[in-house]
Amino acid sequence: MRASLCAQAAEVLDAPSGEEALELLREKTVDLILLDLNMPGMGGLEACRAIRNGWDVPIIVLSVRDSDADKVQALDAGADDYVCKPFSFDELMARIRAALRRSGFATDTTPTRISVPGLEIDFASRRVVANGVPVRLTPTEFDILRYLIGQANKPVPHRKLLQAIWGPEYGDQIEYLRVFINQLRKKIEPSGSKPVFITTEPRIGYRFVLPEAVPA
Question: Per-residue pLDDT tens for 148-185?
């Protein structure tokens, strides 16, 4: 895989364990991480959590485990995508391109800033304050939130949201959205049994509820 990536003009840095990956990240700036769950030392999920806690770089998990439970665990740990082995190199490159594309993601209709009771977002500085407390979103969480707000008060179908964030080759990975939406709700929603901002549209998708006249 290293040779194939280098042939695509990528600079590849190897880290055989999670501990060495963290040390490398402290010394180098990288654009994307390919993380194998099966590696010596620190477990793959633990390494994913540690990376996500310290860096906003996109993480693609590679694994022979293909159950939905394994995918949900990895996404919960902070991964942005999950690729099951065996996979073709073309598929991997498509996932890499989609992850890198998201780092510059935006919509024409997204406001520069919103301020409503319980939630403030400055999109230029990527600053989010929920219930008076600054919260840290992963790159994918932030892009999902930004897209939903760009379509505020409209139902956004699962497929449309998946393809807007992950790329046109996505559309059926609804479990991806459930994981990220749940994480977003934990971070930005006020305490209570029902979501205030990100509501579920049954059998359709999600809606961001934004009062009128608050975008800046």
Answer: 998 899 999 999 998 888 877 777 788 888 989 999 99
Q: What is the pLDDT of residue 110?
A: 61
Would strands 198-201 and 205-208 be described as parallel, antiparallel, or unpaired? antiparallel
Domain definitions of the chain by residue range: 2-102, 113-208
DSSP 8-state code for residue 39: -
Which two structure tokens, joined as six digits, stand for 146?
Answer: 């930004």
Residue where the block lists tokens 């409503």: 116
Q: Mean pLDDT across the stretch 112-126? A: 88
Sign of CA dihedral 104, 108, 109, 112: positive
CATH 1.10.260.40 fits 113-208, yes or no: no
Backbone φ and ψ of 105, nearest 5°:
-70, 140
- Assess contact for 183 and 137: CB atoms under 8 A: no
Residue 213 has pLDDT above 90, yes or no: no
Q: In CATH terms, is domain 2-102 a member of 1.20.140.10?
A: no
| Cβ(143)–Cβ(195) below 8 Å | no
